Amino acid sequence: MIGELERCLNSLSDPVIGKIASGHGLSQPERNQLSYLLTDPVYLKACWKQWSENEKRVLQTFLFKAPQGILKEPDLSGFPANGLSPSQFRYALLCLCRQGWVYTGRDENRERFYLCPLEIRRALAKVLMGSAVTPLGDEGEIKVVSPMTMGIWQALFHFLVTLDHQPWPLTRSGQISKRYAQKLDVDLDLDPEALTRTKWSGDGELPPWVQLVTDLAEQWDLLERKEGYIMPKPARLQKWLQLSWGETVTLLYQAVRQALVSYWNEGEGYLTIMEIVEPGAWVSVKELVKARQLSYRQQTRSLDMEMHKLSGSLLRPLRELGWIEIGEAKGELFFRWLDLPPFTGEVREELPVYVQPDLEIMIPYTFPFAKRYQLAEMADFMGGDHYLHYEITEHSIERACRRGYSLEQILQRLEEWSCFPLPDAVRQQIGHWVQQFDGVLLESVVLVHTPDRLTAEKLEQLALNQHLPVKRWSSTCLSIPSSLSSQVEQWLRNEERNVSRIPEPLPGRITERGGFNDWWLPFAHLGSEILEDRYSEPAEVFPGIRQLPKIWTSGLRAYHPFMKREILRRCMEHQLDVRLEWRGNTVTVTPMELKLESGNWLLEAKETEGKKRRFCLNEMERLQVLLPWSAGQAFS
Prior knowledge:
Number of domains: 5
Pfam family, one: Helicase_C_3
Shape: elongated
Number of helices: 26
Strand order of the largest sheet: 21-20-19-18-22
InterPro entries: XPB/Ssl2_N (IPR032830)
Strand content: 15-25%
Radius of gyration: 31 Å
Distance between the termini: 37 Å
Keywords: ATP-binding, Helicase, Hydrolase, Nucleotide-binding
Protein name: Helicase conserved C-terminal domain-containing protein
Helix content: 40-55%
Number of strands: 22
Domain Helicase XPB/Ssl2 N-terminal: 353-452
């Protein structure tokens, strides 16, 4: 998966990269070196000491408040969080953009947004919050209170396989049948209460978990509605199955992460902080909330209320989705990440598969989805968590036969997967059920005609080595399933063979897995076409500010009432702060609106804390326009 920072840096031209790199003391504009520097907690900690207070507050806003690390242009027109006026916020934002900590882009409506990449936010979390999420030294007293679940990866897989085996009829209005949805919900056996504070809270027509897996499948374009039924797209499903288990789990985490934080904006900060914790380490939820509130200097809710919000919006969903465990000790709540992607790498060795004499099959949660799909064609899913339970039944063997499996193929698959020899009772019972099947099968195949016997033999052996169905018809002709035609064509081209197709549309390409990033893009909020290649300049952020009369900005002065109104209008136009002498006090505010009431001009303004105030212009003795940077200091 291409990271956010990598995409941002790749979107910038070499001259822009050179300016950013130069600001960090790098002699060569190397993107990899710059990426390493910007995510190095040691370097970031040194930068933190040098940043202005306003720059620190802006970065804290990206870390703790901004959904997915993004602030949109309209967000800056109101009053940004953390005690900064719009001009202060914009200027600090400009400085951070010029240093490569923040990047700009345009959304589908051509509206500008600002992004602090996830990699930088995680490094910042380590600097600011590392001590707050230190794992406990003594974990012996913590008791796990959350049961293991099958994980969202198995739930989505079972949903797709269920539709693949028997498409669901749609209602007259084109909606999913409640009866079928409720049956799936029973099969999944996941806690609906865990999704109460998410977008899948169950307010719609479908049970929460059925709505969730449906949303995921539709976002990946895995489903189609055709002739009154909903079913998987065969080619798309088979491509998805070719992804590794680790890739699928990583993609699913990205998808549900995006959904969770978009539903609760503050969840972005909490989740980013949680993600710096190593898998297996218990962390106090109470200490996490206290540290976050202290660091952000904002306590909008009591500690108990904030913990309740965090538990319902993130911890309980992530527990039921399969990524974390929740524990308790002396009435205090803890969490820890499980050893799962994206926090750990791919599984190096597959865990054993057990085929029991009673026809029950136990597979590990890491069992590859392509093999799991083959298993689901000949066995029924019965539930499970760390180990998933499937059962071979008369119905499941009938299904396997209808899908083209012979007795030899069924037994061969089970023998390959099982860590022990296949029990004789299993062989006998499967054989008995296969003999009872009397259906007639139709199969679409592609004939491959080769110019010589050697090519046909090599192709046949290649297919057999990969356990792919192939049949030899003559010395130079063999047949393959139509789904393998693209794969066979590519192999022949690699052998420098001239390949031609009969000009008839062939359903194929279902064994191509597609690039990992192709599956990730539906859940990515970045694209090279919307990121801007520019080195931010003050004129872009504060257009027209250079044309303001210097006398307005050089100090406090008394003005004619008409000129007061003109100065304040220009401040509102550029969202600049103004310093006022009013009733013997000096105050700094951001002008919002001028009103004429009862013959008197009034100014409505906001203080940096966001509090609204009203001032009568006749009571203003002197005023000064404040530039975003310090008086008399030019922007470098």
